[in-house]
Amino acid sequence: MTLEETEPRSLRRDADEAIGVSDIVLVIATGVLLGPEIGGLISTEYSLCSHARHVSECECSDVNHLTEHLKKIQEKDLCHIEDYEHSNDTHADTAHRRLAGGGVYTSYEECLEKSCHAEISHECQLTPDMFTLIGHAGVALMIFESGMHFDFQKAKVVGPKACVVAVLGTILPLAAGTLLTMAFQKPFFPQGVAAGTALAPTSVGIALRLLGEAGVLKENFGQAIITAAFVDDILSLILFNVLFSLGGDFDVVQVVVNPVVGVVLMVLATLLALHFWPKFINGWLLPKVPVKEGAKVARTDEVLFLLMFALLLIYAAITHFLGTHLWGCFIAGMSFATLEPQHHAHHVWVRQTKRMTSWMIRIFFACTVAFSIPITQLLSVEALWKGSIMGVVACILTKVLCAPFMGKARWVIGWAMVGRAEFAYLIAQMANAANMLDEEMFSIIIWALLWATVVAPLVFRYVLNRYVKSEGLEDQPPNMSFFHSESPRKLA
């Protein structure tokens, strides 16, 4: 099959996926139905980390007869019984202690129980189950690839306005999500802030496909969408970092110093991406690589892929100690966005990782996210109506209204920012695991994200088509740069 015969078919397949509802909903639903809580196809030995299997040992009915897990918590001196000795006084409601990642406790027994659950959640993050480990690895690869799409030249053209759109698109969902969480009788911190943070990230994968199909990626509003989406990702990564730094007692290093160091690192990485890596890779490294005759994959491509993977690991390891490895994944990908020929580095990466990453992302949704969804809470009427309000107001409306100063394209840009995908679900899942969202709020957030996931592609397609027709842009040629097409050599 020739390249000319294959590419249109690939484009039609991508367009069909873009027009329909995102398959995230289907994948999550499949994981829920086949998971341990309903179908039981996956054994808990594979769906739960080893520490979570001992969660029943956190029950505390008598402080004189504690389980081994509770004794360990007691030995850590996280809870002090003297804080609760005046529980019979008239000021009993003030007798509590707030712990890292926990909440407000009214008794010593409750403090031990919640601290035990928080400890198990922490251990599960350090030593996750097999499916969670694979899913998070897939998310890291996906964010690295998204960083490779960053276009510095386009960012210069529409940078200032796009940055304002990104700031509003991050702050408005954060504020609305926090306020609605408080209206649902939940505390401002950690639950309100965690809920708002989970609703903030934008995913414009479907929007980029539709923009490319319409041939309007080069238009100002298309550039604004791309730039705003990636700045939104950066802000969400910073917000994500700060959120989990605030999970414990205030630590100036984690809350202030680490985010500042992360921003400085990003600035340095940007300078390296613009001025060092192109010269080093194209001007020095690749010309020294010997030619390998008759090879299916060029030796230079092998070296380039090895360098990409090495830089991914290095940046991810550095930012892991600053709060989240995902930050490093993005700036590592961004480091290869300016190499010549254009998009070649992306083709090299996709050729080697596309299928693996797509399946790892499916595992993330079907297992990491789906297995952590509390079915009884999610299927409750209360979670549904609260999640619907959260979805319409904090998840959809706040993004739609984030570009009021962008002229005729304001609705196209606003609806392009509505989409949610991996990162939003990741924040919700990690906040739940860290005891920053209880099961009820986690279910509400999942409902809200599902609303955005279902509604965004349908409405965006409608407003984009209307705008393209009104501006006379129907005859623009399709733009191939943001489609995940295979390399010509592999397709031929």
Automatic annotation (TrEMBL):
Q: Cation/H+ exchanger transmembrane domain spans which residues? A: 19-465
* InterPro entries in the record: Cation/H_exchanger_TM, Na+/solute_symporter_sf
Principal location: membrane
Location of this chain's protein in the cell: Membrane
Record flagged with keyword Transmembrane: yes
Topology versus the membrane? Multi-pass membrane protein
Report the superkingdom from the record. Answer: Eukaryota
Q: Which UniProt keywords apply?
A: Antiport, Ion transport, Membrane, Sodium, Sodium transport, Transmembrane, Transmembrane helix, Transport
Tell me yes or no: is Ion transport among this UniProt entry's keywords: yes
Q: Which residues cross the membrane?
A: 162-182, 188-212, 224-244, 256-277, 298-318, 359-379, 385-405, 444-464
What the entry lists under Gene3D superfamilies is as follows: 1.20.1530.20
Q: Which PANTHER family match?
A: NAPA-TYPE SODIUM/HYDROGEN ANTIPORTER (PTHR43562), SODIUM ION_PROTON EXCHANGER (EUROFUNG) (PTHR43562:SF3)
Name assigned to this protein: Cation/H+ exchanger transmembrane domain-containing protein
